[in-house]
UniProtKB/TrEMBL annotation:
This is SF3 helicase domain-containing protein. Residues 1-16 have a biased composition (Polar residues). Residues 661-824 form the SF3 helicase domain. Gene3D superfamilies: P-loop containing nucleotide triphosphate hydrolases. InterPro entries: AEP_C962R, Helicase_put_C_phage/plasmid, Helicase_SF3_DNA-vir, ORF904-like_C, P-loop_NTPase, Phage/plasmid_primase_P4_C, PriCT_2. GO terms for molecular function: ATP binding; hydrolase activity, acting on acid anhydrides. PANTHER family: ATP BINDING PROTEIN-RELATED, SF3 HELICASE DOMAIN-CONTAINING PROTEIN. Keywords: ATP-binding, Hydrolase, Nucleotide-binding. It comes from viral metagenome.
């Protein structure tokens, strides 16, 4: 990238030279204003050290220069530079002198190829592999925690640079890692990553050395850094192409790399962050090891594995169940377990793993008072395979007071276990318990079991291949993907083989993982380290055979060499890409998306899960299949400790709902959103005009519910065609949502009654598909549908099935800077708290705990109150056009009669004059309504005792009892 740090003819430039440079540069699309600024900052004139240089080109009349711009002036200089060069698309040739101690980590990658190469040979996967290599080494240098956050900026040219006179093709990448680093740290970091970069990118046919690829001059600060937007004369400019936000997960000690869209990063406003002299990046503490040694060698330390004597295998390991009832003591039990394990075939390795993980579980799973945990272990084993009864017996026998006479009871209990539980426990559950409660044993079993699968890949390398094919790659990508699966099957799931969509288990939630990036990173870190250890173990065994066996030793060493070849592949970008493609099949779970967030009684928090069916707060489990989270901790309500916050919340709710009926209704309604069942089957409409607290309340609910609060496009229930059943990612996103808030409607928006019923039924499934899905996903909505509105939407239907769902909640308060007491039009006025939202982070855990307590009592049921029903009925009457017509046009007259044709004609004229040309009820509905209210159409072919009011007389359309139009519903017709 950069020019050598030579000051030949630069320090000797005169101000006249600079003036001359300016005049010539005006012909090269540069900036007069910037030139004038630089002339005033020539380093020689100030006698101060230079901070920037300009690269000269005499052929173009571009004169070099050396400038000193103070730290105080530098931000202003960069803004001027950005406005004059980047905004106006001018050309410039400036560099920056690097800082010695507190600048960012700078990486300059120079790739040289044969001249025949005419296109770019690397892609985004190579870049991300390189970044991951740097991040892995940074963990050995710096101390990271949950607050760590920094960016990585990647810059590239548009295309390769073919250099005819040197007969080579050049390409390159500039990378800025937004962490402060001193010079020694940058030099040692380069030394650490260099061999790993060479290995990862070994498929590149470079003609320069790898030492030359990773510019040492930049790490040592011997070379200046090209100022962003500047270029070498006659060369293209480097442009920002990728930005990654890096955070650190303290649970697994891994980085999370998130791609930031370039549209969200304004280069002009953020030009400082792309500067080599920017000092605002995070500054971290070094690790104690790095402080002491300044280098981590990462030597392999492996102890040879002990082998155990194999016992004779049974003809069929499932036959072991027949022997269980004969077991009378621990020795017989041990013999039966050993025979079972020895009989397991390689393709049934999961049975061995189920045994190993089960036996790691601590006494709290089998000792006194452990029944609930103990029986869950049995359920999980039964779900895995019927043959695992022997494992359950062996696990139960770990208890000191185990009675072998009770084995028959265990056998009967095993046979009667229910395997149809949709939330059944699995092997993944046992692994999760082991990891949570016996971590060290879990790790030991995992490493041991993975060695078994690694050995399976070694067995694919035949002796013939070892002896005859020096370049054999050994096992295939599919085999290695199988080992990766064994290593991470409890943490990752692939839900789309064609699209490569992945989920990763974080704590107890399944989080979508972009292209399986963290799993891919594990190939060249965790997985490769396991192969290294296996190779070292083989070599140790080969050298310590007693008695010596030259032939066996040779075979073991050859196998070790083959494993080392696999290690090389595990660091290569293309091989990793191939392994990831094969891994999709291993990790694919076709039912995963269907199961995700399907349990309506579970609500996930950062620190656990509330099960509203059992009314307990507990640990989360993988088989809960949760992807959503409130993103807050659940803190049980302490009425003494939380009194002040509870008082503030209650005051807030009383001001929102001064009417006691509404106050109680809304507490129950909001609490019902925590449970995914729909006992009430209602659609709540929050109605009120201006500054009444609707949006503040929904903001508080969003703060509490996190992922469980969803936004619903208004078109979902107003579109007459409907989106359910097609490509609709916005519907898929509603799976598992508990509180769905619609966009505010406009006057005249009309509800699609069919969709409304489907969304609020609580048992009608809806089907939709997101773009990455190959098949539809079907789920039962768990959300309570709500809308904040100033105007009520139109509902043409008058059937009971629609209107029994409608609940109108009036927001009657007014929050203002000048509240007036005793205002008859606005009786509930309160002083506006402009900082109310700032209280929510303090309120949210307490408010949520208050809602949880209510939900435990009500179980999600909301009791209707007269205020809400009255407002809802009033809304219904405004939308009942036939009832309105009867009130306006029908008069009770004992001598009167009206025919169907007369009613039809008059209703049509009346409806058009008041409501327009669309949306009128059919004539059949009008006639049926008349039958219901005035009796059946009689033999005179008329309704008798009434007549049409043509002259706007005072109307009596019937008795008070008859006026109760709520008795008439379309489902009665």
């Amino acid at each position: 990238m950069t020019t050598n740090n030579r000051q030949i003819n630069i320090e000797s430039q005169t101000e006249n030279d600079m003036q001359k440079s300016h005049s010539n540069k005006m012909q090269s699309k540069t900036s007069k204003k910037l030139n004038d600024y630089l002339i005033k900052h020539i380093a020689k004139n100030s006698g101060l050290p230079y901070t920037n240089t300009r690269m000269p080109d005499n052929d173009c009349g571009i004169y070099g220069g050396s400038y000193h711009i103070s730290d105080e002036e530098y931000p202003d200089f960069l803004r001027l530079y950005a406005n004059e060069i980047l905004t106006k698309n001018n050309e410039e040739y400036l560099t920056e002198k690097q800082l010695d101690s507190n600048g960012p980590i700078l990486i300059d990658i120079d790739l040289h190829f044969d001249y025949a190469v005419d296109k770019r040979l690397y892609d985004i996967s190579h870049i991300e592999d390189g970044i991951d290599i740097y991040l892995a080494e940074l963990k050995t240098i710096y101390q990271f925690d949950e607050n760590t956050k920094f960016n990585v900026y990647v810059m590239q040219k548009n295309d390769v640079n073919r250099v005819v006179d040197k007969n080579i093709t050049k390409d390159g990448i500039h990378i800025i890692i937004g962490l402060q680093a001193d010079r020694i740290t940058q030099i040692l970091l380069r030394k650490k990553v260099l061999p790993k970069i060479a290995e990862a990118w070994s498929d590149f046919p470079i003609v320069n050395t790898w030492d030359g690829v990773l510019d040492e001059g930049v790490s040592k600060a011997d070379s200046p850094w090209q100022l962003y937007g500047s270029r070498k004369p006659h060369h293209d400019v480097y442009k920002l192409t990728y930005i990654y936000e890096i955070t650190y997960d303290t649970d697994d000690g891994e980085f999370i790399r998130t791609n930031i869209h370039l549209d969200n990063f304004n280069v002009i406003e953020n030009i400082e962050k792309l500067s080599a002299r920017y000092t605002g990046h995070p500054s971290l503490f070094h690790t104690s090891e790095f402080i002491k040694t300044k280098e981590s060698n990462g030597t392999l330390q492996t102890n040879a594995r002990q082998t155990r004597q194999k016992r004779s295998a049974m003809n069929n390991y499932s036959d072991v169940n027949a022997y269980i009832l004969k077991i009378k003591n621990r020795d017989e039990l041990k013999d039966a377990v050993d025979e079972f394990l020895d009989s397991i075939q390689s393709f049934d390795y999961e049975l061995r793993e189920a045994h190993d993980y089960t036996m790691t579980l601590p006494e709290s799973y089998y000792g006194n008072g452990s029944f609930l945990k103990w029986i869950r272990v049995g359920w999980a084993l039964r779900n895995i395979h019927d043959s695992l009864l022997i494992v359950w017996v062996a696990f139960s026998a770990l208890a000191e007071n185990f009675d072998f006479n009770n084995i028959s009871d265990l056998y009967d209990r095993w046979q009667n276990m229910d395997l149809k539980n949709p939330y059944g426990l699995t092997k993944r559950s046992i692994m999760h318990w082991s990891r949570e409660d016996a971590l060290e044993k879990f790790k030991k079993v995992r490493e041991t079991s993975i060695d078994f699968y690694i050995d399976q890949t070694i067995k694919t390398i035949t002796l013939d291949k070892i002896g005859s094919d020096k370049n054999s790659r050994g096992c295939g990508d599919f085999d290695i993907a199988g080992v990766l699966y064994q290593l991470h099957k409890h943490d990752y799931v692939c839900v789309s083989v064609s699209k490569g969509v992945w989920y990763q288990l974080k704590k107890h939630c399944w989080i979508q993982n972009d292209s399986g990036t963290t799993l891919r990173h594990s190939i060249s870190t965790t997985l490769r380290n396991l192969y290294w250890k296996r190779a070292q173990s083989l070599m140790n065994q080969a050298s310590s055979l007693n008695p010596p066996d030259e032939a066996k030793s040779k075979r073991m060493q050859e196998n070790a060499n083959k494993i080392l070849n696999i290690c090389t592949r595990l660091g290569n970008t293309n091989d990793k890409n191939n392994i990831m493609r094969e891994s999709r099949e291993w990790f694919y779970d076709p039912d995963f998306l269907q199961q995700l967030d399907s349990n309506p009684y579970l609500l996930s928090f950062n620190n656990g899960v509330i099960d509203f069916e059992s009314k307990v707060f507990r640990k989360g489990y993988p088989e809960d299949h949760l992807s959503k989270c409130t993103k807050i901790d659940y803190v049980p309500l302490d009425k003494e400790k939380h009194k002040q916050t509870m008082d503030e919340i209650n005051d807030f709710m009383h001001k929102l709902f001064p009417d006691p009926q509404l106050y109680k209704y809304m507490w129950e309604h909001l609490a019902s959103t925590l449970i995914g069942t729909s006992s009430n089957q209602t659609f709540n409409m929050y109605v009120g005009v201006g500054a009444n607290g609707k949006s503040v309340l929904t903001d508080l609910m969003k703060e509490c519910l996190g992922d469980y609060k969803g936004d619903v496009p208004l078109s979902l229930i107003t579109d007459r065609r409907g989106k359910i059943g097609g490509l609709a990612p916005e519907i898929v996103a509603l799976k598992g949502v508990r509180y769905a808030l619609m966009q505010e409607p406009q006057e005249g928006d009309q509800i699609n009654e069919g969709v409304l019923k489907q969304l609020t039924s609580g048992f009608d499934p809806i089907t939709a598909r997101a773009p990455y899905m190959t098949e539809m996903v079907t789920f039962i909505p768990q959300f309570k549908l709500c809308v904040c509105t100033n105007v009520l939407m139109e509902i043409k239907s008058q059937d009971h099935g629609t209107w029994r769902r409608i609940r109108v909640v009036d927001f009657e308060s007014l929050f203002t800077n000048t509240p007036v007491q005793g205002d008859p039009e606005k009786p509930y006025q309160f002083l506006k708290d402009v900082k109310i939202n700032e209280k929510f982070p303090v309120w949210r855990e307490v408010f949520m705990a208050m809602l949880v307590d209510i939900a435990f009592k009500t179980e999600g049921l909301v009791h209707d109150c007269p205020r809400v029903l009255s407002a809802s009925n009033s809304y219904k009457e405004k939308n009942d056009y036939i009832a309105e017509f009867i009130r306006d046009k029908m008069i009770v007259d004992p001598n009167g009669s009206v025919s169907k044709s007369a009613i039809t004609n008059e209703f049509t004229l009346w409806y058009k004059s008041i409501h327009g040309n669309t949306g009128a009820p059919s004539s059949k509905k009008v006639h049926t309504y008349m039958d219901k209210k005035y009796g059946n159409y009689d033999k005179k072919r008329a309704w008798v005792g009434i007549r049409i009011n043509f002259d706007n007389e005072v109307i009596n359309s019937g008795s008070d009892e008859d006026n109760d139009v709520d008795n008439i519903h379309e489902n009665d017709l």
